[in-house]
Automatic annotation (TrEMBL):
UniProt xrefs under InterPro entries: NTF2-like_dom_sf, SnoaL-like
Top-level lineage group: Bacteria
Gene3D superfamilies found in the cross-reference section: 3.10.450.50
Transmembrane intervals: none
Record-linked Pfam families: SnoaL_2
Protein name in the entry: SnoaL-like domain-containing protein
Residue ranges annotated for the SnoaL-like domain, each copy included: 17-121
Coiled-coil regions listed: none
Length: 139
């Protein structure tokens, strides 16, 4: 009798790469499929998006609002090869957009924790938190 073969979940690198590539392509819905239902997204700073957002729906709402507030100009770019340390994947990124005549164009790192084929934690880092706070504002 054949026993069913269990397939291992995709590697942390594969999951992280697919997630970032979806965001770069503007496919927010596709990116959200890589998130655990219990994902925690940690947005730094003191702006309207700062804090911990829980669940793919909440994360999608934040990303959608970033696009809306920036008049559809917000974009993310992967600027280097993702770096893996077990379940952690550090992705060097650049994010940019325009809002009310203001421009944002700064580097950052998205640190993703991948477990069982899904992203469970997203910690975002910005090279210039004060500029990001000014750009997004409080409301």
């Amino acid at each position: 009798m054949d026993t069913p073969k269990s397939s291992a979940p995709p590697s942390a690198l594969t999951v992280a790469t697919e997630y970032v590539q979806a965001l770069v392509a503007g496919d927010v819905a596709g990116a959200m499929t890589r998130l655990s239902p219990q994902v925690q997204w940690h947005q730094p700073g003191q702006n309207r998006f700062s804090g911990v957002h829980r669940g793919p729906e909440s994360v999608a709402a934040v990303v959608g609002e970033m696009h809306q507030i920036s008049g559809g100009t917000f974009r993310l770019e992967l600027t280097g090869k993702p770096m893996v340390n077990g379940p952690l994947v550090a992705c060097p990124v650049r994010f940019a957009g325009e809002r009310k005549g203001d421009r944002l164009d700064i580097a950052g790192v998205d640190l993703l924790t991948v477990q069982d084929g899904l992203i469970t934690q997203v910690h975002l880092f910005s090279e210039d938190g004060a500029a990001e706070d000014r750009f997004w504002g409080r409301d």
